[in-house]
Amino acid sequence: MHIKEELKERHTLAVIVDNEPGILARIAGLFTARGYNIESLTVSEITDDNRISRITIVTSASRPVMEQIIAQLERLVPVHKVTDLTAWGPHVERELALVKVAGTGDHRIEALRLAEVYRARVVDATISSFVFEVTGGTEKIDKFVELMREVGLVEVARTGVVAIARGREAV
Amino acid sequence: MTEKSGADILIETLRELGVDVVFGYPGGAVLPIYDALFQQSESNRPIRHVLVRHEQGATHAAEGYARSTGKPGVVLVTSGPGATNAVTGITDALMDSIPIVVITGQVATHLIGTDAFQEADTVGITRHCTKHNYLVKSPDKLADTVREAFHIATSGRPGPVVIDIPKDVQVATARFKPAGPIAHPTYRPQTKPDAAKIEQAIDMIAAAERPILYTGGGIINSGPDASRLLRELAAITGAPVTSTLMGLGAFPASGSQWLGMLGMHGTYEANWAMNQADLIVCLGARFDDRVTGRLDAFSPNSRKIHVDIDRSSINKNIRVDLGVVGDVGVAIADLIEAWHVRKHPKPDLTDWWARINGWRATRSLDFEDRKDAIMPQRAIQALWEATRHRNPIITTEVGQHQMWAAQHFHFEDPNKWLTSGGLGTMGYGLPAAIGAQLGNPDDLVIDIAGEASIQMNIQELGTATQYRLPVKVFILNNEYMGMVRQWQELTYQSRYSESYSDALPDFVKLGEAYGWKGIRIEQRGDLEAGIQEMLDYNGPVIVDCRVAKLANCFPMIPSGAAHTDMILGAAQVAGELDDEAKALV
User: Fold this and answer.
1) Which CATH class is domain B195-360?
2) Complex ipTM, two decimals?
């Protein structure tokens, strides 16, 4: 007997929650307990009084499982609202990466040139290294990191995706 | 205004919420609360504390109390092992949607995270087996947290809530704030269904030629009104009614429209009617795998309506045509009203009932009675015949005896059948019976048990003795973990790996050692008299009823099979299943 794989789609969810202790563990634990997958998860407070947080989750699942993920999230007591931005329509997704590259000579010049193409900023430099700050969609960052590998990539730190719907309406 | 200790605030709030009994076990991290319990003034309707013998027993007792009274059950245990011992019962309550509030002691706040004596990360451990949980860090927040916990445990889809209270918070003082309105910022379960969906449901019911009402534990949770309304809905639509294990009693077993329980050990007529229906109206049930059997063969030609208070239950296992979110009692009331407004006549279901009666003629619950042995089914029947006039509360453990009880004990009313359905917790029945007896002192409460399950919480015999609770434990003793053995016969060519009950205690002597009356029934001819002797005794009784050792529970839908592939008797049992079926639970 072999275990069957299901067809999955990638979705980006915006989850508005009470900023209370354990909320992140509650959400992350729900995903592991029910066998859902998390590609990326970001969280930060979004109100002045620090009482509300916005969590952005990128997950991939079959359509029925996607529906379950949203229903299960909404069932958690501290969760205010779950929006499936992918289903909602046009939205902007961004992540930020800090990319450290070490090298000298041609590699160093090539790294700078590529950084310019990708609109990455230099936020730290030594004689033999750079740290670039680059923002964009996941694919752009992936591509940039891949290119940097050729010219002396040392280390990468990424925030994961944050996303917001286009247009004037709030989700 | 004078300040009160956290422990006093807790007791005061529990009293304000109408709590009259708490099931618990003391320990270091709850000593201040136990002292506050001790010092309650007798004039002020003190909360009664029931000392269990193991914290798991406290949780099941609270479940039994809750399920039989409709009020939330309350548990009080200490930190560390007290809390971890409670986890099985908490999970059981989550799976069966039973409202309980579990108060756990915790080490003092400055010791949290230091691996202090009897420290466990209780909120971490219980995060995924509770509906919600809290760590209270200030006595100031205690009263409102307790009020919110009760609100969450009892509203929407009920479930267990844990409140973890560090010892210093129990000792520190704060002003006791009287109750304001419970206003959680976001938790607002939808109880009233959308009117448009009710209209759509009525269209579907009116158009159906082969409808069936598939009911579950949600009807019991909704309250006695929901059961009454279900009877009315059945009367005006003429539809047959089946129920899950958890929903037994919501519809009277003596009713002419009753098909019996459905699912793995359900009746032939219930499962065939589900399979052949053109409309399934699911009321407060959740299409559990024990009900559906093989998913791709489940009721292939029906449209499906699902009424559930928990949106995540809708379309979880089975795609439905119409999902209605709301309290099932309110939804049934709305359906009845809409039906009357439209002046629908009672549909003519003559052809459908003719087919159902054909399936009924199979008499799938019949068994071959024997003179030389007590058939377990016969023992349940005899128990039912001897007690039905007293409308008893029945609890069970988990296994064959549980299924036989579900099949052969017939319930007329809700809140009379307490069993561990979702989690399938052996050891549930005795403590649940204790909780039910405390909540219903004048009722007859019987735990129908197996000799293996009863040993999982046998220590609670002492609890019944201490509080003079006249519960009865009726053990169907076949010296096997019968359901495991039955599956081994079906799936593993009768290789009985570890499924025999060796080194059994003498249950009569064991009962006597705890101050119970013990009765042993060994002969078929002694069955009725033995049951009568049990009923006549004014106090707790344990009955060791020796039943036919190798009887199996039928009908049965084997693992991975469809409703139409029921096994009706031992002659149809196959030797070995394929890997796909073996991999299913």
Assistant:
1) alpha beta
2) 0.87
